[in-house]
Amino acid sequence: EILPIHAGCCPSLNVIFIGAPSAGKTVYFLQLCDSAFHDMLARGTRCCFENDMPADDERRQRYEEARRNLRDNKILPEPNRKGEIIFPYYFYIQSQDGGEIRRALLRLEDIDGQQCTEMEWESQIFNSNIFVIAIGADELLANEKGEEVQFTRVVEKLLPRLRVLRPDGDYEILVMITKCDLLNFENSHLKPTAENTVVVEGKKIQQTVHEHGFDYQKFNKRSKHIQDYLKEECPTFYLSLTYAIPDERLNFCMVASIGETCTDNKFENFSPMFIDEPILAILAKEGLYPVKSQKEKTKEMRAKSSFKDFGKMVKNFSRRVMDQMELLDE
Hints:
The longest helix has 20 residues, at about 310-330. This protein has helices spanning about 25-30, 35-40, 60-70, 115, 135-145, 150-165, 215-235, 235-245, 275-285, 295-305, 310-330, and strands at about 10-20, 45-50, 90-95, 100-110, 130-135, 170-180, 200, 205, 250-255. It has eleven helices and nine strands.
């Protein structure tokens, strides 16, 4: 495995996207890895994103082709194959706040849905520090009708393994409802969340709510309403999470990567919703993205950061090296 350029030189944010098959996590993952998305986040700030791989990796060719097809041809990616080795993406992030420049290596990893619903104890999932649990809105609606769903199985597998394998609790969970355009925003819990955070102008995505800085107040308000919705519609799922994960390490958000009906894995219109919030919530907490008019809040979030000391950075780097050695042995 080719190591990123800045491996071991700065703190590492290891983010993995997990969820049941067809949860929509790969579509959002591909958006996150696109340079146009990075430009949207960087516009009007002093935060920049750089691809940190020293050379193009042929083993990511399928993902790169899928990313271009999604952006240029409006074609959804093919489902990940069971057991497929999906190589992570690395981005070097630099952000300036006053005279201080903060740097970090952002590692983004996707995984096939079946590995999530049939999670093994030795799964690579547990090497990450930030777990983004993707739940398709279509499954939430099916759950409301009493139909069998898969998203609950992911959490049922994940939580007991985290208790045993990560007893130090040096991780965070972000619950992300995908395909949120399918939800009924007239619902009393969801109606206050309807203000979109992005708008498409021509072929360019522009931020609105979080333009020039992350608005914690609006994000936290939306997160609270999403929690209320989940607590009412799937209380067992919600309570199992909140009992297992402390509030400061658990957040909720939603996205619609496409925001339109797809036919035969294709879409004509593009109306994304809230797609900047999940990654901004992660970056802002680490002091890697400006926060709107809340300097004290920024200091507080830095103090809570799970990557405060260099020792944890070395620990995370060592984990990655061991993973790569295992891949080579295979």
